[in-house]
Amino acid sequence: MILDYLPQILFLIVLIAAILFFAKNVSSLKRNINLGRDVNRTDQKNKRFKKMMRVALGQSKMVTRPIAGILHIIVYIGFVIINIEVLEIIIDGVLGTHRIFGFLGPVYDVLIGTFEILALLVLLSVIIFWIRRNMMNIKRFLAQELKGWPKNDANYILYFEVVLMVLFLTMNAADLQLQLMGAQHYASEAGIVGSFPVSQYMLPLFDEMTIDTLIIVERTAWWLHIVGILIFLNYLYYSKHLHILLAFPNVYFSNLDPMGKFKNLDAVTKEVKLMMDPNADPFAEPETDGDEDMPEKFGASDVQDLNWFQLLSAYSCTECGRCTAECPANQTGKKLSPRKIMMDTRDRMEEIGKDLNKGKEITSDNQLLDNYISREELWACTTCNACVDACPIGIDPLSIIMDMRQYLVMEQSAAPVELNNAMTNIENNAAPWPYNQQDRLNWAKE
Amino acid sequence: MMSDNLKVPTMASYLAEGKQPEVLFWVGCAGSFDDRAKKITKAFVKILNNINVDFAVLGTEEGCTGDPAKRAGNEFLFQMQAMTNIEVLNAYEVKKIVTACPHCFNTIKNEYPALGGSYEVIHHTQFLKQLLNEGRLKVEGGKFKGKRITYHDPCYLGRANGEYEAPRDLLRKLEVELVEMKSCKSKGLCCGAGGAQMFKDAEKGDKEVNIHRTEQAVEVKPEVIAAGCPFCNTMMTDGVKNKEKQDEIEVLDVVEMIANADDL
Fold first, then answer.
1. Chain B hits for A442, Cβ within 8 Å
2. Taking CB atoms and an 8 Å limit, are B87 and A432 in contact across chains?
C-alpha cells in the first residue's frame, strides 16, 4: 500500500527540498564572496590546517572571556555531537525504521544518554545566553549596530535552539514510554533501546495517555524536531549564525603573517621603481602588460574592491562584538566599531546580491563608503590590531579600514588636513614634522 | 651625571674607514627631532657607548620609514620612503638594525623585505636583552629597585609582533615591583597615537584614548610608567599631566630606566 509509505515519501520530499534550498543559498553566498578581488590564502596548507584545528575546532580563542567561552563550548559540542543523532533520524525517516542504530546495544545506550545530557546542558546554556543578551547590561550587546534585526536574529537563534532541545527530549520521553508500554514498532524484544537519563524524568507527563495519543506526541515531536533542524539550516544564510559553518574556512584562510605587516600594493611598487630608476625613459610608451596589472582604483570604496577573504569574513562574523569591546576608539566613545565594519560589508554585499538575483546588473547607487561606513569611523582607527587579536575566528576588520583609507587618500585626496600636512612634511623633508633632514643628527651634538 | 659626550659615528664615516659596524641604530623621526624622544635616543647611545657596542647611524641619510603615510592610506608616499631608505641601507650593506621606535621596527622588519630590503631588525629592548644574555650588559636594581612599575605595551611591538617579554625581562632585572594594568600584553590598550593618529586631531568621542589608557595605569598606582615607544611616551606623559599626577608618576622608556639605574 502506498499509504504505508506516505510518511517516508513526505519525509524525502521535505529533506530534498531543504537540501536544494540550502544549495541555492550556498551558490548565492559563493557568488557574492567572489565579487571580491583575488588574494593568495592557499599557501602554507599545513600551518593553515593546524590553525583551523586549534582555533575553529578547538575554540582556543573563545575562552579569553571565560563565561561566554565555556557556555559557547558546551553549545558547540552539543551541536556537533547531537548531529550524530540527526543522522539516525534521517535514516529512520527515509527507511521508516525505529532507532536503526539500536543494534549497537550498550554503545547506543551511551550515545543516546550522552545526547540527552548534552541537550540539557545546551538548553541551560542557551537560557543563560538569553539572559545575558536581554536582561544583563552587557555593553557589547547594547551597541547601536545591534538594534533591530541583529538583536532579533540573535534571539531567534536562541529560541530555535530551546525549541529543538525540548522537542528532542520530548520525542525521547514519549519513545521511552511507548517502549515501556510495549507498543508495536517501538518495543524491542531485546528490551529498552537507548538510555534516557534526562527524558525519563518527563515520563509522569505521559501517565494518563494511551498508546495512540503517545504515538501522536512522539511523531509530532519527531517531525517538528527534524523539520526544525532543516528550517534552521536554511535560516543560516539570512543570519549571523552562518559562523557555525564559515568559522572553519575563515580561520583556515585567515592571515598568518605578523599582525603589524600590512600588504604592499604591487601596482604602486612598479610605479615607484620606475620613478626611481635613473635609466627609465619618462616619455616611453607604457608597457602593455603593465596596464593590466594596474588596478582600476587604489583601495576600496565598495565591496568589489575588497578581497574574497574579507567578504568571506563578513559572512562568517557572528556579531559577538569582542572586537568592538577591545577597540580603543570605541571604548572612548568614537563612532568606530570594528563589528559594524563587518556587518556593513555584509549588508552591502547582500544589497548587491539582491540586484544580481533580479538580473545581471548592479542597479543600486549605493556604495560601502559613505552609504554604510562613514569617513569619521575610518579615521578614528589607531591600527592597534586589538580587534584582529580579539576575533575568535581570525577576522581582520582593520584590513578593510586600511583599504578604505587608501581609497580616500589615493583616489580622493580626502585625508584630514592635519594628516595632509604630516604627509607633505614626509614628502619634503623625510619626517612628519617640518624639520630639515640635514638636522637629523643634531641631537648627538646637543 | 656624565656629560652628554656621545660617540655617534655615521655609516658614511665607517665606510670611509672601510669598516662595518655590528649594528645600525635606526633613530627614527621622533628619536631625532622630538625633545622628549631625543632623551631616549641619548640614553640608548650612552649605554651602547658605555659597553663599547660597535654601532653607527645613518644621520642625515635617514628618512621617515613611511609608517604614518602607509597607515594614513598613502601607499605611494610610503613606498617612496621605503625604497629611498632601502637604497641607502643596501648601499651600506646593512645586515642588522636596532631601533627604539616600534613603528620603525615593524615597518622595516615586515614591510621592507617585499620591496627589496631584508635585514635582521630588532627593537632596542630586544637588543639590550641580547647584550644581557651575552654578558656584555650588566643590569642591576639601582635607583628603581623595589619601585612599583607598570609597563605599557606598544601595539607595534606587542600585538603586531608578539614581543611582550624582552622589555619586562629588563624591568625584572632592575628588580622593580612589576604590576600589570587591566589590559596588558596581547590585550594591551593602545595609547592612541598609532595609525597616524599622532598627527591629527581625534574624532569626536567621550574622551581621548591616551586619557583612557592613563586611567588604567593610574589604577595600579605605579611610580613609573615604563614605555618602549616614543609616541606612547608622549601620549602617556600628556595623560599623566592631564590627571595632574606628574609629581607622583614618571613616564620613562625602559632604556632610560636602565641608563638611570646605572647613573649614566
1. 32
2. no
Location of C-alpha cell 528532542: A168
CB neighbours of B103 closer than 8 A, spacing ≥ 6? B28, B65, B67, B68, B156, B194, B229, B231
Class of domain B139-261: alpha beta
What 8-state DSSP symbol labels residue A252? H
CA distance A265 to chain B (A): 7
Show which of residues 400-429 on chain A sit within 8 Å of chain B, judged by CB atoms: 402, 405-410, 415-416, 418-419, 421-423, 426-427
Nearest beta carbon to residue A328 from set B80, B199, B212: B212
* 3-class SS of residue B99: strand
B136 vs chain A: nearest CA distance in angstroms? 24
Closest B-chain CA to A431: B64
Query: What b-and-e string marks burial along A27-58, b requiring 16 or more CB atoms within 10 Å of the CB?
Result: eebeebbebbbeeebeeeeeebeebbeebbee
DSSP per-residue codes, B126-189: HHHHHHHHTTS-----GGGTT-EEEEPPPTTTTTTT---HHHHHHHHHTT-EEE--SS-GGGPP
Identify the helix (H) or strand (E) that includes residue A238: none
- b (16+ CB within 10 A) / e for A83-122: eebeebbbebbeeeebbebbeeeeebbebbebbbebbbbb
> What are the pLDDT digits (tens) for A275-327?
888 777 766 665 555 455 566 789 999 999 999 999 999 999 999 999 999 99
Segment B91-100 mean pLDDT:
97
Quick check: B208 contacting A, CB < 8 Å? yes
Asked if A58 contacts A326 with a C-beta cutoff of 8 angstroms, the reply is no
Residue B181 contacts residue B226 (beta carbons within 8 Å)? no
Better pLDDT: B147 or A184: B147
- Of A194, A197, A199, A195, the closest CA to residue A102 belongs to A194
- Where are the domains positioned within chain A? 2-33+65-252, 266-415
CATH 3.40.50.1860: which residues of chain B?
11-132
Residue-wise pLDDT tens digits, B190-230: 999 999 999 999 999 999 999 999 999 999 999 999 999 99
Q: Give, in degrees to the nearest 5, the angle at Cα B209 between A66 and A392.
A: 30
Q: Phi and psi dihedrals of A265, rounded to 5?
A: -80, 120
What fold does the segment set B11-132 form as a domain? Answer: Rossmann fold (3.40.50)
Q: Does A435 touch chain B if contact means CB atoms closer than 8 Å?
A: yes
Integer Cα distance of A140 and A138 in angstroms: 6
Q: Helix or strand or coil: residue B227?
A: strand
Chain center to CA of A30: 14
- Rg, chain B, Cα only: 18
CATH code: domain A266-415 is 1.10.1060
Q: What digits encode the pLDDT tens for the residues A20-59?
A: 999 999 999 999 999 999 999 999 999 999 999 999 999 9
